[in-house]
């Protein structure tokens, strides 16, 4: 998963527009006192699919975008749309696997978190990871 994580971060780092919309894109969780807006991506459970010839892992990737609540929802919508446009149907090069395509399986448009401190949006993608 390390090489997949690097591929996701490399795509973020190469995007001047998405990078300008959020301060950082963290794996797992944001650092304490992270400056808003930021994104966090994590991997969901993998399902091992054994075929007659190769092993394939089905992986889910969840991406959360967080912005400040005292800003308008526009900031969150903008970051959410840039994230979706960057990763939806994107082909990632993963060094120890064949290239993968991210397929969007779920999205939650921006909403204010119940404690009123942040806006949040969620995108979830699925991919099939096959080692070379």
Structure, described:
- The chain is an alpha+beta fold.
- It has one domain (2-130): 2-Layer Sandwich (STM4215-like), CATH 3.30.2000.30.
- The protein has three helices and eight strands.
- It has helices spanning 2-14, 16-21, 73-87; strands at residues 25-27, 38-43, 47-50, 55-68, 91-92, 100-101, 103-112, 118-130.
- Strands 1, 2, 3, 4, 7 and 8 form a six-stranded mixed beta sheet that branches. A two-stranded antiparallel sheet has the order 5-6.
- The chain is elongated and about 50 Å long.
- The two termini are 14 Å apart.
- The mean pLDDT is 89.
What are the key terms here?
132 residues; alpha+beta; STM4215-like; six-stranded mixed sheet; two-stranded antiparallel ribbon
Q: Summarize this, please?
A:
This protein has 132 residues and is of the alpha+beta class. The chain has 3 helices and 8 strands; from the N terminus they run ααββββαββββ. The strands form 2 sheets. Strands 1, 2, 3, 4, 7 and 8 form a 6-stranded mixed β-sheet that branches.
